[in-house]
Amino acid sequence: MRRLVLASAVALATALSSIALPSVVSAQTLKVVMHSDVKVLDPIWSGAYITRNHGYMLYDVLFAMDEKFQVKPQMVETWTTSDDGLVWTFKLRDGLEWHDGQPVTAEDCIASLKRWAARDAMGQKLAQSLQEYKVVDPRTFQIVLKQKFGAVIEALGKPSVVVPFMMPKRIAETDPFKQIEDYTGSGPFVFKKDEWKPGEKLVYTKFAKYKPRSEPISGLSGGKVVNVDRIEWVSMPDAETQVNALLNGEIDYLESVSADHLPLIEKDKGVRVIKGRVSNQYAFRPNWLLPPFNNEKVRQAAALALNQEDFLQANIGDKRFYQTCKAMFTCGTPLATDAGMAGLAEGNAAKARALLAEAGYDGTPVTLLAPTDLGVIKQLGPVAKALLERAGFKVDMISMDWQSVIVRLAKKVPVSEGGWNAFSTSWSQVDILDPLMTPFLIASCDKARAGWPCDEELEKLRDKYVQSTTEAEKKAAAAAVQERAIKVVTHVPLGEWFGVSAVRANIGTITPPPPVTVFWGVSKK
To answer: What is the rounded distance in angstroms from the CA atom of residue 471 to the CA atom of residue 469?
Structure first.
């Protein structure tokens, strides 16, 4: 009798194994701690990197950048350009759907591009050359220009803030200066808004109807194949808690690891460290509106006084994860050049002191804003203060958290009323690849980023880059932009550093890692 029961049990188990069990039973969940909590969910309204990363989970793009910094089609199947370069025609891939089951249409894409262009510097430049958007058929649309814009594909494939994510027309028609409330996308994951607990976690599930491209993953392009069923972004502000959770197997993926914790993590055989492939660039930004940096020669003196190696050593320390680099568009990229950078950012205090004297510097203090709560940039302020003082500047460093820095940077008022003279920050390489992307190169006076450079010649050179169509023309135009920018000192590059992530040994990731943290191509054993 016992044998009969056992045989029956085996038969039942075999039968059950052939039945598809509910996804809740077989679901693979990846638990992740990102570099910060998500405060804003609209990636067009906000330029925060964490909001951009959230955007890549939900939304797809017309074009995407591969690992060689080449822009490739993503949602687009084919595209053509008229002989005069003024009419660009794009046909979408067949079978693209929104998360609500509706087909992706040309009208959706046009509405999305209009909203994006209102918030993005590169999009604004494209809009200046635009005559109209035109729907050809449900899957085909045109961008019709009134003058040549050589960077059309680069603009549509822009990899970082603000990314031209595609949204349904009804959502994309939201005022670009107001946040959306509907998070329907067509990307590889669906956002579970009902499970969102601000300050605790965000939840994403696999979009079963997503149609990946057939090409292999390369950078942010290729087939976005999802290998897990559910991803939870867990909020865990304390770095020590993050590391312990990773080592104990409570989380699977830690997006950002500080240099201080690397030795501990690297000793654990159950954890794997991943060095980012693309760099981040430190930069010093002077305020052109107030003395002493309303004087070009004083700005030039600061560029001579600062020293890349000092900033990199103080903030990163481990030479595996930083490099000196004077290229404004970063080293190893198509537009990298050292044009105009000779002798700058090498800590030449003597030359800087002489130029200050020539400029008639009267000892006006430099009010330097220094964030204290972001590990990879918190030493930028103290290092800048020491180097500037060695060259003869008087410096008043004000330490505060990063959010307070951001609030103060918006103020175009004297220092006595809450203004400022300089600050340092960091940009991802994918935000500074050319003269249009790079935020600190906008020199349109009051319309520029905080620091408000005002230089008509630099803006004309950026427009020349817009009109460039060949690679040779683009390189020459970019070099001219860099030479002018460093002469008038829009900002000073302070070297490059590479982010470090850590994952449990059973987590498979994309090699080489994309320039933005994404979760297609990630697997869990």
So the answer is: 7
